[in-house]
User: What shape does this take?
Amino acid sequence: MKQNNNPTHSRRNFIKNTIVAGTGIFIVPRHVLGRGFIPPSDKLNIAGVGIGGQGEGDLSAIAKSPNANISVLCDVDERRAARTVTRFPKATYYKDFRKMLDKEHKNIDAITVSTPDNTHAVVAIAAMQLGKHAYVQKPLTHDIFEARKLTEAAKKYRVVTQMGNQGGSGDGVRRMKEIYDAGLIGDVNKVVAWTNRPIWPQGLATPSGKFEIPKELDWDTWIGPASFIDYHPDYVPFNWRGWYAFGTGALGDMACHILDPAFRILPIDYPTEIECSANGSWTGLATEANYPDSFPSSSIIHFTFPCKENKGDVKLTWMDGGLLPERPAELGADEAMGDWNGGIIMEGTKGKIMADCYGANPRILPLSKMQSLKLPQTILRVPEGHYVQWVNACIAGYGKSTLSSPFEYAGPFTEAVLLGALAIRAYKMKGSNGKGTPGKKKLLWDAKNMHIKNLEEANQFVKREYRKGWEVNTW
Assistant: This one.
């Protein structure tokens, strides 16, 4: 596998090296070269970090843009990277993103981050500090503090950003907003959402046993800022999502897709109250949430959001692990509720609207109302899609284009989602005074100061401790 021996030229170097000597005139401009031809100087040189699995799909979608040049690749696991490396044979390959940025920062304009949740923020912030545009998979970060800091960094470093919740650029969520804006369901005060996740093991005892690290895997870099633990095949390549140290559970996997219509339409951002219940394992006396290092197999989380349009509070309930809300009375017994991944129902003062995952297939309840619905299209669509929208915005420059999920939007959204994950982790905490019943404490959130006001012990999950050598100096 080729490493470090095929450096690419930066846009600046390309331009510098193609000036006609003594004239100050650049090489033949685009319009002379012919319609549709994009000279190398106009392409976005992109580095992909985390290029197997989801990362492979991300880069494949980005590569559909004629403006994109996948010039650098990085993944800690050569096995997972192999197909993408084969697809982009001219790209330089690295296993450590820090070495990649050190060697290639002059040769790249933007970065995609499709690593496990644990390293989203440390990779993204390092690139953003170098002025690189960033596309980061959902959830934006592993903890709340990181989401706040990435939001601030996008503005500070004036880089173009997008979170990878692709439904945010879909037609469905735009149609939902058109229905809402037309007043057809009134003011929404209740939202329920659900998913079939996890589809990986959760609610488990911590893995044990000694295993040899595969020679293709840089385990230390995969661990990243988390506390070091021995390699175990239960963590890689996919099941990391269920472990607190590396993933964010079912919420992190799907809430940024399924809840997007609520955050985009109502609008809401930071909750003030969060409470949850969670399923655990049989202890001989009762079923408890007994999972010291793993997310539970299922959970229910209740959020209270003040609506930013001064229309009262919005009560939002999230359910995962196969749990489902009660079917709306307006939905027929044989009519589908959501899709395989999950769904969302928004209940207003005049009616209800339901959609599938990604905000797809929105429909007013009862479904018979959709047959006579004649509503004009008032919101611009994104025909190029989520990925190419970001590529085009990067080329246009910071502040020049509208994006579906810039960190300005995605950061607060991610914070709210991760508060649900925090509530799960705090589920069994009674507080330092020993009072209270596990799972019966409502968490009160101070968004401005990123602080749980009534359970101090839970604040350890707002910002994690970074392993030595992985600290980010601006944090």
Remarks:
- The radius of gyration is 23 Å.
- The chain is about 25% helix and 20% strand.
- Confidence is low (pLDDT under 50) at residues 4-38.
- The longest strand covers residues 298-306.
